[in-house]
Amino acid sequence: MTDNEKRFIKSIFSGDSSGHDYYHTIRVYKLATKIAKQENADVKTVQLAALLHDVDDIKLSPDTYAAKKNAVDFMMANKVDEEIIKVVCKIIDEVSFAGTDSVVPDTIEGKCVQDADRLDAIGAIGIARTFAYGGSRGRKIYDPEIKPKIIMNKDEYQKNKNSTSINHFYEKLLLLKDMMNTTEGKKLAEHRQVVMQEFLNEFMLEWEGKM
């Protein structure tokens, strides 16, 4: 990653405390690069898409989301070929989890980026990010009277505001292991899944005062 790219990402995510920060992008960039090399994907395309995958996220930048303005402006300023810009924007469109409307990317490059982003949503980092995001949105940690909604489409998922951070594991995070596309992604997800399950088991024991 060049200094120019680092400066751009830092400027976009400066002050973020929701878990979608500069370091999230760096981790996704590294994971996506690792997976791309294992899958013989085009590494440069994967790296560019990983770098820009959150700069127009609807949760963080709703005004630029539709046109991918931040991503497109950065690529044009850096003289990225027009066809590559289209490919990268399509990958960005396909990355996000959307419940039952989630898509499997058309290209191996898209699959690498999607897997990398999902890997950073699970495991120990995923646990930390869940509570950071929940806190930034005023979510409760847990409320046994609020049941998780296991099956939601994109619209239902995005409008599901009255949830809790613990519910988020059941509504999204525990589902991601079986949604991985690549051999490397599937392998890395196995351990992270165990970490989350052990955390939830411990959390419930402590919640009930049994530990």
Overview of this protein structure:
The chain is globular and about 60 Å long. The longest helix is centred in the C-terminal third of the chain and has 25 residues, at 183-207. It has helices spanning 3-13, 22-39, 43-52, 62-65, 69-77, 82-95, 108-119, 123-136, 154-158, 165-171, 183-207. 61% of the residues lie in helices and 0% in strands. With 211 residues, it is mainly α. The protein contains 11 helices and no strands.
Give me the secondary-structure category: mainly alpha
Strand content: under 5%
* Count of alpha/pi helices: 11
Largest sheet: none
Shape: globular
What do the pLDDT scores average to?
94
| Span of the ends, CA to CA | 45 Å
Helix content: 55-70%
* Number of distinct beta strands: 0
State the order of secondary-structure elements, H for helix, E for strand: HHHHHHHHHHH
Radius of gyration: 17 Å
Poorly predicted ranges: none
Summarize the structure.
Helix content is 61%, strand content 0%.
Task: Break the fold down into its secondary structure elements and pairings.
Elements: H1 3-13, H2 22-39, H3 43-52, H4 62-65, H5 69-77, H6 82-95, H7 108-119, H8 123-136, H9 154-158, H10 165-171, H11 183-207
